[in-house]
Each structure stands twice: as C-alpha cells, then as structure tokens.
From TrEMBL:
Residues 126-195 form the Large ribosomal subunit protein uL10-like insertion domain. This is Ribosome assembly factor mrt4. Pfam families: Ribosomal_L10, RL10P_insert. It comes from the Eukaryota. InterPro entries: Mrt4 (IPR033867), Ribosomal_uL10 (IPR001790), Ribosomal_uL10-like_insert (IPR040637), Ribosomal_uL10-like_insert_sf (IPR043164), Ribosomal_uL10-like_sf (IPR043141), Ribosome_Assembly_uL10 (IPR051742).
Amino acid sequence: MPKSKRDRAVTLSKTKKKGREHKENIVSSIRDAVEKYNSIYVFSFENMRNLKFKQFREQLKSTSRFFLGSNKVMQVALGRSESDEMRPGLHKVSKLLRGDSGLCLTNMPVEEAQRIFNEYEDYDYARTGSIATETVELKEGPLDQFTHEMEPFLRKQGMPVRLNKGVVELVGDFVVCEEGNPVSPEASRILRLMEMKMATFKLNLICRWSPEDFEMYQEGLQGSDIESS
C-alpha cells in the first residue's frame, strides 16, 4: 500500500517566526541610528509600492536609514513618554507613528530632505479596493485598443462585448469604475489593459526632530494632539 501523504514528516527548521528577538533587533537598530544621524523624520505613505520604495531608499542609502513595520516597535525604540524617551523630545516623534507611517533618519540638510520628499511621486495601476480617482466609461462601439484574442477575457470581466468581423465591439456603454468608489478586481484588470495608471505612490512628511528643535509639517496636528494621544 502506498504511503499516505499525511504521514510525511515536515521539517520546521527553515521556518522562523518574527518573534521577540526580531523585535529587539529592530529596536537596537533604530537606537543605533538615532546616535548616527542628525535628523529624524516621520512620514506617511499613500499607495505603497514595495519595489518603488526600495528604489527610493537605495537612492538615499549614503545619507539616510529608513524603518517601516510595527509602529509599536518603533515607538518603543524611541520612547513613548518623557520618562523613557531615548533623547529629549523623541516621545513627540513616537506619538506620530500612526497608521501607514515610517521613520527616516538622515544626515541630509533640512531643505534637501524636504525637497526630495515633497517632489517624490510615482504612478502605478490601481489595485483592487483602492479608490478610483476618476470615472472611466467606455462608449458603445468598436474597441480598437483590444485585439480579437482578448474578447473572451473581456467578457469574463463583465464587459458586454462581441467580435464583429474580427474587431472587439462593445454592444452597450460600460462603466469601468466611478470616481470616489473602490476599484473592483475586474476594473483593476481592465484599467491595466488600458494602461491607465490611477494610483499615486507618495511620501508625506509629518514632522522632523533634531537635538535642537522639533517641527511639524502637516496641518491639523498640533502639540496638544501629540501630548493627549
């Protein structure tokens, strides 16, 4: 009788969970970086694209160090209150690590860092669930941008299409997505086929800390908010 697959031994030696040791290493790395760099920035991000962020980080690796991950772990590294902060004022930075945010520790001049972050934008295709930035509607008639081989795929995406003498034809008006509404999986595929990039990957500076001062960048975040959070 052949041996059951359920009886096969599975080795776990190559699988490691990111536990306490991993978190302690991050805390240690952040604290080492605090001693090495002149300024610390908190930034938020929109429509994160890992590859594009890696490229951005690589461009600045000679002057800067970036940290993304658990906000709580980064908060522990900096200190969450005046009593346990690593350097004076760092608890204010810690309290601004919320949601989609990260740390940039750098030796760049302030003006250069602000310029690089403010000017950075990269466009990509909208993913499922992202919010459409415009309404895209296709009118009834031939769709010359699609080849006849794509007709079955387009039908699977819910588009009312047919082949007419080898040309893909829309038999009725079709709304791909509506501005302000989430992009469906089907709409995401259609927009990619149409080469319509609707997602903007951006990095927004929230604050800057240095041993000399602390500066807020985003409106609506006041000192009282930091202290009460």
